[in-house]
Design brief:
Number of strands: 8
Shape: globular
Oligomer: single chain
Helix content: 25-40%
C-alpha cells in the first residue's frame, strides 16, 4: 500500500506500487526519534494491547531506531517478544523501501506523561505524507477531521483493526493522505498561515 507522488506545478502524478490485500493486516511500524525519551512513546501500552489480543490476525510491531535496548526488554517483560522486532537505524533511502510493507504507523501514545494534551509531531506528518494510516494518543490540530488516522485514549487492538479495515475500503486512500499532506501540511502552506496572522497586526 505504498505509492510515489511527484508534483509538477499544480499537478500530481501518482503511481501505485503495491496493491492492498484486504485479508492481510499484521504489520505495524514505529519510528523512534533521536531524543531517546522512550517512556513518552507509550509502546508499553501498545504491547500490552497486543498481549491481550487473541483475534485472527498475527500482529507484529517493528521498531526502527538507535539504542532499542529499552524496547527489547519491554517486549520480553510484557511477553510479546516473539511479535516485536527491533531494527537498527536506517537511512532515509532505506526507510523509504522498508515502509512499503507496513499497514499502520504508530505515533506517540504517552505524551500525557509530559502533561501535554496537544502536540504536532513530525512522526504523524511523515506517516501522512507516505500514505500510511496511523494511530496516536493526543490531540493533533492538523488531523481533527480526517479518517485516515485514529486518535486513541485506550489501546484496543480490536478497535484499531476495525478502523483500519473500514478505511481501506476507500479507493485510493493513500493518495488522499499524500494530497492532504501537500495541501495542509507543507512548509509553504504553514508559513503562509503564519504570514496571514502577522499581517493582521
Amino acid at each position: 500500500n505504498f505509492f510515489e507522488a511527484r508534483r509538477f506545478g499544480n499537478h500530481r502524478n501518482v503511481s501505485v506500487h503495491f496493491a492492498i490485500y484486504f485479508n492481510v493486516l499484521n504489520k505495524m511500524v514505529f519510528l523512534k526519534g533521536a531524543n531517546g525519551q522512550a517512556e513518552y512513546n507509550g509502546l508499553d501500552r501498545l504491547m500490552k494491547g497486543m498481549k491481550a489480543y487473541s483475534g485472527e490476525y498475527a500482529i507484529e510491531l517493528h521498531i526502527y531506531g538507535k539504542d532499542l535496548l529499552y524496547e527489547t526488554n519491554l517486549a520480553k517483560t510484557i511477553g510479546v517478544n516473539e511479535s516485536v522486532f527491533c531494527w537498527p537505524y536506517q537511512s532515509q533511502a532505506e526507510l523509504s523501501q522498508l515502509l512499503n510493507q507496513f499497514h499502520i504507523g504508530i505515533g506517540q501514545l504517552a505524551l500525557y506523561l509530559k502533561k501535554l494534551k496537544s502536540n504536532s509531531t513530525i512522526k504523524n506528518r511523515e506517516y501522512c505524507a507516505r500514505g500510511i494510516p496511523f494511530i496516536y494518543g493526543h490531540h493533533d490540530p492538523d488531523f481533527e477531521f480526517v479518517d485516515f488516522c485514529l486518535q486513541i485514549d485506550q489501546v484496543s487492538i480490536i478497535d484499531i483493526i476495525s478502523w483500519y479495515l473500514n478505511l481501506i475500503k476507500q479507493e485510493d486512500f493513500e493518495v488522499k493522505m499524500h494530497n492532504y499532506a501537500i495541501d495542509k501540511l507543507d512548509f509553504k502552506v504553514k508559513m503562509n498561515h503564519v504570514k496571514n496572522i502577522i499581517s493582521k497586526y
